[in-house]
Amino acid sequence: MKAVNNTKLPNDEQWHAIINNDSKLDGQFWYGVTTTHIFCKPSCPSRLPKRDHVLVFTDPQQAIKNGFRPCKRCRPLNRIVNKQIWVDEIEYTLKTNYQRKLTLNELGQLVHGDPSYLRHTFKDITGMTPRERLNEIRLTQAQHLLQTTQSSVSQVGREVGMSNTAYFIDCFKKRFGKTPLQYRRTKSLKPVPLSKGGQS
Ligand SMILES: [Zn+2]
């Protein structure tokens, strides 16, 4: 990370407050995490960073000037975060992480938000829970892979983060009315171009 002006590492008292989510020092200092570029109040309940990734600021504007973004969970600027911003961030995180196992708690850690609040807000704005949206992203991607690759059904399932093949087939059928294999067959009905000799 580039050089940061006017910042310092936490002293023992500050680090202690961060570990204990101690609100007594809220308003006296703010801390940024150099790996995420997010800054927080001492009392923030987000996952504890490593001490050597923490920088301390004496006011929130100093954090912003150094390229840190306010945490949406503890809201160090005391501003309400627009719901659409949450939704955009969740959507982005689902689309970039759908290939791996992703629980609501992990999603909360990735976007720095309280899991039940995230679920509620996402559903409120989009009509879907994050889990439903994640499945939708996975199944749409599976359609694409079935059409464009020769991967087996279980490989396709694994590639989209659904390693339980029976569950994958079940979800796929519920969503599209066909099993993955039926889907692949109907999508490859186009005539196969003949090879030069007319034989294949
Ligand atoms: Zn925070």
UniProtKB/TrEMBL annotation:
Keywords: Activator, DNA damage, DNA repair, DNA-binding, Metal-binding, Methyltransferase, Transcription, Transcription regulation, Transferase, Zinc
Residues of the signal peptide: none
Keyword Magnesium assigned: no
Cofactors named for this entry: Zn(2+)
HTH araC/xylS-type domain mapped to chain residues: 88-186
One matching Pfam family: HTH_18
Entries under InterPro entries matching the protein: Ada-like_dom_sf, Ada_DNA_repair_Zn-bd, Homeodomain-like_sf, HTH_AraC, HTH_AraC-typ_CS, Me-P-triester_DNA_alkyl-Trfase, Tscrpt_reg_AraC-type_HTH
Highest taxon above the source species: Bacteria
Name by which UniProt lists this protein: Ada metal-binding domain-containing protein
